[in-house]
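REVIEWER CHECKLIST
Item 1: Sequence provided? yes
Item 2: Single chain? yes
Item 3: Sequence as submitted:
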Amino acid sequence: MASTPSPAIGFLSSISVPLLSAIIGGVLALLFVTDYLRRKRSEVASIAQPLDAKLEDQKPSRPPPPASKKSHLRSQHHHAADKDQIKKHHPLDVNTLKGHGDAVTALCFSSDGRNLATVCGDGVVRIFRIDDASSKSFKLLRLNLPAGAHPTGIAFSEGETSVVVAAQTLSGSSLYMYADVSAPKQQEKIPHPEIKWEQHKVHDRKSVLTLVGASATYGSGDGSTILASCSEGTDIKLWHGKSGKELGTVDTNQLKNNMATISPNGRFLAAAAFTADVKVWEIIYSKDGSVKEVLNVMQLKGHKSAVTCLCFTPSSEQIITASKDGSIRVWNINVRYHLDEDPKTLKVFSIPLHDAKGSTLHYDHFSISHDGKILAATSGSILQWLCADTGKVLDTADKSHEGDITGIAWAPQLIRTGGKPSLVLATAGSDKKVKLWLAPEQHSP
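Item 4: Structure as written out by the authors:
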């Protein structure tokens, strides 16, 4: 008896061979794709992990805990402060006189060195009492110039009791003399100084470049103060400090002036101008002590380019000049010029100051210490101290002001600094500041 086939066998037998092959192929393909995707994810993961690790390495490190962060910031602050201190504070920088409302245009010391007068673009004259150069505060007297007057120069007249101010106005240059201007020794109320004399259009419409004064102690001079105002043109005028009387006019005939100054004893007047030669005049005094005449007596020939600044030595017998030709010259003017004896060049130094390209810079201002040993010179914001005998650089302050230096002056007497008498130099700048500096130590060559 034949057996009956099972339902499963019947079902399989009812399926065609092609359909079965298709089903088996699809299953195999699905398995292949699944395996491929699994391996691809593994590959991507193996590549991405090092990349993520690299990016993680490039990320900034996590900040330290709060206490450590504060410590770090404090350390950074102190480091920046130290750098700022090193940048701005020079060892010879002893003090800064602040409070000026604009660029300081000129300054000068009184004959006793205890009063320092400044003029400023804000139209105010300030007179500081310098009892100790290192003091944290100074007694101060303020004088307001007439409205519209822009001061360009200042000089003490008759010791420390009065000042003469040169100012530019719409009508031209003017001179104003104020008496009894000493800064108060105590915090006391004093009468406001008044103008004792004034002169207008002293150089027509040209401004005054420099205003200097000296006591007429040479020959028959009566010791009164003689002032010299140097215009930006070619003329220079002499004035009697107390009366305001005009004593004489000279003309350099050299295109334009750079500056002029008077010898400490009131005998000579010298001018630096656009040309290489320096002209020197002698102030001749009458028997009664008054100025008789002003004679052109000699010329200093030797520089190859314009002389930018000059100063007399304390003896009044020598002149030190600086030129755009890169040299400093020391001249002996104590000669018998009336017998045609020419002034002699005693020494020639190279200006020891160069820019980043190695080119020699020129000096803008000169001032020599009252002992005749140290020459202070400026170029832009650079301040240098030189040995007046050898030309050797004693010290340099590269950025003594945050702007150009507009004037320098040595105190004519020693000034107490922290209880010790010291040589003190004052500098004025376009940064609205006046600074006091100690003299560098001098070493034997």
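Item 5: Key structural point noted by reviewer: DSSP finds three helices and 31 strands in the chain.
Item 6: Recommendation: ____
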